[in-house]
């Protein structure tokens, strides 16, 4: 006889002669444990649903109150029914914005840089999200879904702003750079993703550096504007890395932001050409040259996997705490699965 | 021919040549051969039987036919009744004395406030320097300051606490004996004797004070908790256990942090993973404890009745040293045990012992190590081992890196 138990979305079989800990460990799922005899408390976890027999758990290690609160010692407990557990310290029941399926209307399609368009999608009812999250579009007539970050702040909840880069042969490009017209209807699912500003009460106004590659600028626009509204004096540097000056966009919009918020700076970085007024090279290198220490800063990276990885290295090199490094790897939406 | 017979007939004369110096420098080759040829064997230089595999360590540590005994060098260093060497009512009383402060729920209520500021303070002293020797400047200080404050030894400097555990440690493991069972290096106990005298000179007045005015410090609780009103535990009764703390509990979280760092440095990609996701630290530390067990071979059990273990007949009253550091390299249980690997199949290890004498401080020790490494890697995410300097491990009874030079860009 075996009973199913699960943790962090992974499900394993626990046989009658196994503790939950043993079943997880044998399945290669690590969880904290030390004594394996119920005396140290290291393996304490939360039963989220289901039922367990506490077995030999001593009252000293697992008090009556803790049992009542649904805690258990993994090394002693056996499941009596299908059971789901969560490790302590794992975020439990954190509220997130509800994932929804909506129908949107194309309000505007604008060419903003070479092979780059801004698409505005009108919603009939507002969508709740956090600045930085993304949505999925069902590309009309294809059954394919493509992911696009929102450039909006949470207040801009009725017209979604997406930045789209043309991918030759990509299904979404074919549509957005081809037949798409104002008034078209399109299915949208969202919000998704964990790349977003913290809740206002967890935002203590620390300095921020944001690095966006190409249309990876989109979520950073929502994040930067939200963070500056909250703490108008905060230090913030935004690096926009592109190949050539023709790939830059929204520089006026960002210059306006710099005029409003004195702590905000925009740095444009061109990797394939040298143009006065712009830095040459790669954005993470520009950051390393500019900022001597990012200790206490938070960092935001959105772009190709290579850019994000280089950014993480640069941030750590300048001693930013990794828990404050946020990353969004942005495979050009169309390239993903374009061949499927 | 069965394996048992084979084991019984093994020629173990090579064991006569094993020296203390060799074991302290690197015990692994000797123990690897022991595990293969005689997982329960009499080792002449130690004057004792030694259990070297996971199975036999666990069996002896949890067997009803064995009870605890302190090693001769340990007994010489700590005196009686040290918690690690007593049984029955005295052991129950001493466990009952130390356990309340070490219960997980209790530890959770103060450990972050205790350890995090201490860890931050030590990091701040070198974070802008770009280099540090992490054993002496971080791992040991964080470990001793945290426990020192918990015990009520705020007045004793971290350097003094480090000096004490070093001195107690070399005495405790001064285990070498001759064929008559006499210590071969009696002078080796001098450091421990010096430390004990100093400790008493500092702790006696504190005890005097706590007897009159109880405080919320561990030693004050040890004096008063569970005693009838107006009575306190005798100081001579608790001193040996104070020494257990001032040695093992002071030293091992530092060893544990340092070994985990060396292990991670040996796998740069795993170091990077842990730096990026500090929630992996408990697992990294657990593997660090397995890889280089801080209490490598320091506690023992003694048979209370004639027993046969893996074909070896032991009369009643036979001591067996538990070499947990060897058990944790048992190839019967772990693939490539000499490699540090954050992602190895997560099987339990024996670094904290087993049975009713298993470590009482597991939960607390794990939290100290976690918080210590969290703060270090948060402040210095670009930490690297200084490859211009070697890393040397030392110790048979207790084991860890003697130094760990590191650098980073500032
Ligand atoms: C990483 C750090 C530590 C390790 C690896 C460790 C490991 C061990 C081991 C192997 C034993 C002997 C178990 C046996 O004989 O089966 C032990 C005993 C003990 N440890 Fe720890 N320990 C650590 C830290 C601590 C700390 C911080 C404390 C207290 C705050 C502590 C308190 C004790 C006590 C009281 C005993 C004696 C238990 C008894 O004999 O009943 N330990 N420890
Ligand atoms: S591992 Fe120690 S209580 Fe479960």
TrEMBL record, chain A:
Transmembrane segments: none
Required co-factors: FAD
One MF term in the entry's GO annotations: oxidoreductase activity
Source species taxonomy: Bacteria, Bacillati, Actinomycetota, Actinomycetes, Propionibacteriales
Sections of the chain in a coiled coil: none
Record protein name field: NAD(P)H-flavin reductase/ferredoxin
Pfam families reported for this sequence: FAD_binding_6 (PF00970), Fer2 (PF00111), NAD_binding_1 (PF00175)
Residue ranges of domain 2Fe-2S ferredoxin-type in the record: 3-91
Keywords, ordered alphabetically: 2Fe-2S, Iron, Iron-sulfur, Metal-binding
Organism field: Nocardioides albus
Family matches, as InterPro entries: 2Fe-2S_ferredoxin-like_sf, 2Fe-2S_ferredoxin-type, 2Fe2S_fd_BS, Beta-grasp_dom_sf, Cbr1-like_FAD-bd_dom, FAD-bd_FR_type, Flavoprot_Pyr_Nucl_cyt_Rdtase, FNR_nucleotide-bd
Domain named FAD-binding FR-type: residues: 99-198
UniProtKB/TrEMBL annotation, chain B:
Source organism: Nocardioides albus
SUPFAM superfamilies: Cytochrome P450 (SSF48264)
Lineage of producing organism: Bacteria, Bacillati, Actinomycetota, Actinomycetes, Propionibacteriales
A GO molecular-function annotation: iron ion binding
Gene3D superfamilies according to UniProt: Cytochrome P450
Listed name of the protein: Cytochrome P450
UniProt keyword terms in alphabetical order: Heme, Iron, Metal-binding, Monooxygenase, Oxidoreductase
Pfam families referenced in this protein's UniProt entry, alphabetically: p450 (PF00067)
Protein family (similarity comment): Belongs to the cytochrome P450 family.
């Amino acid at each position: 006889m075996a009973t199913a138990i699960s943790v962090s979305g992974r499900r394993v079989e626990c046989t009658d002669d196994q503790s939950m800990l043993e079943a997880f460990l044998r399945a290669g799922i690590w969880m904290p444990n030390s004594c394996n005899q119920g005396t140290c408390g290291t393996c304490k976890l939360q039963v989220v649903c289901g039922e367990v027999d506490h077995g030999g758990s001593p009252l000293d290690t697992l008090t009556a109150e803790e049992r009542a609160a649904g805690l258990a010692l993994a090394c002693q407990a056996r499941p009596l029914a299908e059971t789901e557990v969560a490790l302590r310290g794992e975020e439990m029941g954190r509220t997130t914005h509800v994932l929804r399926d909506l129908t949107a209307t194309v309000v505007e399609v604008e060419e903003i840089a070479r092979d780059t368009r801004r698409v505005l999608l009108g919603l009939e009812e507002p969508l709740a999200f956090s600045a930085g999250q993304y949505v999925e579009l069902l590309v009309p007539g294809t059954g394919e879904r493509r992911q696009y970050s929102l450039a909006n702040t949470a207040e801009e909840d009725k017209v979604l702003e997406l930045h789209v880069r043309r991918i030759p042969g990509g299904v979404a490009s074919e549509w957005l750079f081809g037949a798409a017209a104002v008034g078209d209807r399109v299915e949208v699912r969202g919000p998704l993703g964990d790349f977003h500003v913290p809740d206002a009460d967890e935002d203590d106004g620390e300095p921020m550096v944001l690095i966006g590659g190409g249309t990876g600028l989109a979520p950073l626009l929502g994040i930067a504007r939200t963070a500056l509204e909250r703490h108008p004096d905060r230090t913030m540097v935004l690096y926009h890395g592109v190949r050539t000056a023709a790939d830059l966009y929204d520089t006026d919009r960002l210059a306006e932001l710099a005029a409003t918020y004195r702590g905000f700076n925009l740095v444009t970085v061109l990797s394939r050409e040298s143009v006065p007024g712009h830095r040459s090279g790669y954005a993470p290198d520009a950051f390393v040259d500019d900022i001597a220490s990012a200790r206490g800063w938070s960092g935001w990276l959105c772009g190709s996997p290579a850019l994000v990885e280089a950014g993480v290295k640069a941030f750590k090199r300048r001693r930013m705490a990794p828990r404050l490094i946020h990353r969004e790897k942005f495979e050009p939406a169309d390239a993903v699965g374009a061949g499927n | 021919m069965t394996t048992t017979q084979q084991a019984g007939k093994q020629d173990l004369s090579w064991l006569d040549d094993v020296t203390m110096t060799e074991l302290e420098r690197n015990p692994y080759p000797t123990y690897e051969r022991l595990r293969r040829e005689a997982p329960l064997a009499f080792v002449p230089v130690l004057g004792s039987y030694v259990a070297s595999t996971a199975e036999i360590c666990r069996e002896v540590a949890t067997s009803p036919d064995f009870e605890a005994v302190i090693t001769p060098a340990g007994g010489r260093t700590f005196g009686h009744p040290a918690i690690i060497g007593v049984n029955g009512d005295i052991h129950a009383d001493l466990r009952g004395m130390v356990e309340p402060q070490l219960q997980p729920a209790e530890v959770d209520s103060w450990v972050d406030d205790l350890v995090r500021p201490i860890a931050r303070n030590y990091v701040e002293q070198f974070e802008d320097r770009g280099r540090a020797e992490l054993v002496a400047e971080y791992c040991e200080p964080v470990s001793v300051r945290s426990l020192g404050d918990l015990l009520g030894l705020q007045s004793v400097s971290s350097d003094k606490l480090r000096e004490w555990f070093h001195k107690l440690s070399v005495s405790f493991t001064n285990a070498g004996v001759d064929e008559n069972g006499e210590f071969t290096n009696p002078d080796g106990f001098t450091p421990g004797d010096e430390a004990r005298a100093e400790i008493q000179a500092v702790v006696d007045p504190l005890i005097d004070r706590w007897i009159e005015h109880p405080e919320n410090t561990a030693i004050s609780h040890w004096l008063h908790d569970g005693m009838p009103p107006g009575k306190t535990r005798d100081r001579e009764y608790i001193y040996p256990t104070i020494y257990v703390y001032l040695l093992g509990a002071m030293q091992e979280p530092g060893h544990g942090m340092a070994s985990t760092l060396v292990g991670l440095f040996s796998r740069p990609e795993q170091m990077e993973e842990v730096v990026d996701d500090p929630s992996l630290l408990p697992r990294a530390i657990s593997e660090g404890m397995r890889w280089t067990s801080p209490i490598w071979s320091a506690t023992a059990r003694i048979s209370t009745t004639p027993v046969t273990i893996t074909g070896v007949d032991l009369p009643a009253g036979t001591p067996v040293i538990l070499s947990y550091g060897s058990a944790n390299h048992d190839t019967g249980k772990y693939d490539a045990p000499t490699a540090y690997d954050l992602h190895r199949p997560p099987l339990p290890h024996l670094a904290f012992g087993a049975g009713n004498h298993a470590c009482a401080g597991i939960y607390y020790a794990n939290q100290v190590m976690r918080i210590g490494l969290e703060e270090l890697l948060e402040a210095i995410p670009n930490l690297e081992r200084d490859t211009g300097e070697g890393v040397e491990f030392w110790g048979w009874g207790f084991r860890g890196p003697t130094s760990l030079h590191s650098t980073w860009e500032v």
